[in-house]
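I hope you will forgive my troubling you with a question about protein structure. The record follows directly beneath this note:
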Amino acid sequence: MSVDPNVMSWYEASARQRIDALTDPHSFVEFIGPEQREVSPHLPIFDLPEQFDDGMVVGRANIGGASIFIAAQEGRFMGGAFGEVHGAKLVGLLRAAKAMKRDVLVLFDTGGVRLQEANAGELAISEIIRAIVAARTEGVRVVGLIGGRSGCYGGGGLIAGSCSTLVVSEHGRISVSGPEVIETNKGVEEFDSADKALVWRTMGGKNRYLIGGADLFADDSVAAFRTAATAALARTPRLDLDTMEAEQVRLQRRLDRFGNATDAVDIWTTLGFADAAAVPGLSTDEFLQMAYGHREAADDAR
C-alpha cells in the first residue's frame, strides 16, 4: 500500500496508518503505547486473542500546525468493538481534552460493543458520550471521521451522534442497529442484510450526508479526510439549548418528510433529485454538485 496520503485509501488503511498520514509528519505521540500492554482482562476468559493496544490508539498530534488529541479504532481487531480498556482509553482522552481545552479527532471503525465484554462495553459507551458532552460544553470540538471497513455501528453510532461534526465517505456506514441485527429481529422482509446495495444505500455515507446525519462528505483518501478534518476544526464550536432545540425541530421535520419512505431512493426523490436512482453511481464531485441545495442540513447535533 502506498504511503502517499493522496492515494492511500482510508477504507483500506489501518488505524495507525490513518493517524500517520492524517497528521503532520512526526507529530504523533501515543499515550498508553503498546509497550505498556494495557489489554482486555476479559478476552482470555473466552480463550480469545488479545492485542497490544486493545484496538484503540490514542495520543496527541498536530494537524496543520494545530495541536489536537486523536483516537483511532483498529477495525481489524474484533471489528473495532468497544470493551473495557478500549473504551477507557477514549474516555481518558476526552476528559483530558476538556481539561486542556484541546480539540479531538475520533477515527471510528467499529461494529459496536464486544459481546464478551457487554456490560463493560455498554458502560464505556455511556461514559464516552458523557465525556463528549462535557468537553463540548467547554468549547472543545469533537470531530468524528467515518470511512473504515467496520463502519460505525451500535454504540459507536450513538457516540458519533454526540460529536460536534461528522465527516463521512461513501464507504462509511452509520447506524445503531446493523443489517444482520435488523434482519434477525424483524425478518428478511423488513431488511435483507444480504442485499449489499440496500445496505450501502440505506446506511452508507451518501445517504447519511443527504439526510443531515453527517456534515462533510469526503473521498476515500487520507488526503481528502485531512482536508475535511481541517475544515471541521475551523468551525465554531457550540452546544447549547438553542442547538438542541433546533436539532429536535430538524429531526421532527425529517420524520414528517421521510417517515413513509421504504427505500433511500424514495428519500432522494423527495429531496428533489430528478434521477435519484443514479446517486449510488455518482463520483464524489458529481455527488456533491447534485447534493448542493438539496440535502438536509445538520445542527451540530444529530
The mean pLDDT is 93.
